[in-house]
Design goal:
Layout lengths: L19 H9 L21 E9 L5 E6 L4 H21 L63 H20 L2
Antiparallel strand pairs: 1-2
Bound molecules: flavin-adenine dinucleotide.
Flavin-adenine dinucleotide binds next to helix 3.
Length: 179
Amino acid sequence: MSCGSPGPAGTPSTGRSCSPTSARWARVADPRPLLSLTWYAAKEIRARDRVTFSAERLDAYGMPAPRVEYGLTRADRAIAARAAELVSTVAASLGEATPGGEPRLLPAGSSLHYQGTVRMGDDPRTSVCDRDGRVWGVDNLVVGGNGVIGWPTAANPTLTSAALAVRSAAAVARMIQGV
Ligand SMILES: Cc1cc2nc3c(=O)[nH]c(=O)nc-3n(C[C@H](O)[C@H](O)[C@H](O)COP(=O)(O)OP(=O)(O)OC[C@H]3O[C@@H](n4cnc5c(N)ncnc54)[C@H](O)[C@@H]3O)c2cc1C
């Protein structure tokens, strides 16, 4: 017997032999390729989005428990609606949607790109550190990582964080050398 996953419509099966179990799956499974589309959109900065730490409650590590303040603005919702339209258009041009596969806004944090908790900037009133990662008002504290990215991004952030960390490291070297 030969079976295996048939290729896209009109192309032959791979013709490999397989077990009775996989032969049964090959009969019930939809053989068409399934594609998942994800649209990332930049989030508008809200001054009140922040992480605060509880004075009373501790987390699982015994550290002050964090609390995340985060919300979408009207502009964010408009961009998300536009992204849903675009992804639907692209999906329709590629093929048929699966039942329940309509675009939806994923829960906050789903991108895994948490940013801006110690944002850098030029104004101590609206940022935590300067452009070299030096925390305002503390001479010997330099921060790095995604937290310093204080502006909207849609693409993956790690390369940006790494580039900023290199710049901060150069500033630390200058501080140590006293230049
Ligand atoms: C599944 C997954 C896939 C991802 N894919 C991508 C991708 O393709 N491209 C991309 O750009 N980004 C991706 N990211 C995001 C990427 O991982 C982050 O952007 C990046 O790791 C952030 O770097 P960071 O230095 O800011 O934080 P982290 O990498 O989280 O580093 C923080 C460090 O601090 C340590 N730490 C925390 N608390 C303490 C403490 N109290 N004392 C001492 N140390 C502490 C932690 O152990 C950790 O090592 C992905 C993330 C996930 C989870």
